[in-house]
Amino acid sequence: MNLFIAILLSINTVKENTKSDECMWYFINLLVDTSLGVFICFALMMLVDKLAKEHKIKDLQSGLYYEKVKKKGKEVIILKPKMYFIQLGIWILIVTVVI
């Protein structure tokens, strides 16, 4: 996506008779994405986590996709695929929206 946007921006500036380079636009897009984009993703993930904790929705709390159960006197950790895939879906949605 970044490369496609860089090419479009470069073509647009060529029409205006100014010197432009796809590599320059690619670098600018990459720089903005890796700094501002990552911060926005982090902030949105923290917002979802905060709302999940406030409303006591365990399925949405980040990192909690397992359950500790005692079997035969030992504590066993069981992965909960439903919780994992709900959280994965939220993360994919956040990353997609930020793009």
Describe how the helices and strands are arranged:
Elements: H1 2-15, H2 22-54, E1 66-71, E2 74-79, H3 81-98
Antiparallel strand pairs: 1-2
Give structural notes.
This protein is an alpha+beta fold. It has one domain (2-12, 21-98). The chain has three helices and two strands. The protein has helices spanning 2-15, 22-54, 81-98; strands at residues 66-71, 74-79. It has a two-stranded antiparallel ribbon. A hairpin with a 2-residue loop joins strand 1 (66-71) and strand 2. Helix 1 packs across helix 2 and helix 2 (22-54) crosses helix 3 (81-98). The longest helix is centred in the middle third of the chain and has 33 residues, at 22-54. It is elongated. The model has no long low-confidence stretch (mean pLDDT 82).
Q: How many angstroms does the end-to-end distance come to?
A: 9 Å
Q: Which oligomeric form is depicted?
A: single chain
Strand elements, count: 2
> What's the number of helices?
3
State the secondary-structure class: alpha+beta
What's the pLDDT, averaged over the residues? 82
Biggest sheet, spatial arrangement of strands = 1-2
SSE succession: HHEEH
How would you describe the shape?
elongated
- Work out the helicity level: 55-70%
Ranges where pLDDT stays below 50 over 5 or more residues in a row are none
Instruction: Return Rg in Å.
Output: 21 Å
- What fraction strand? 5-15%
Largest sheet features? 2 strands, antiparallel
**Count of all domains:** 1
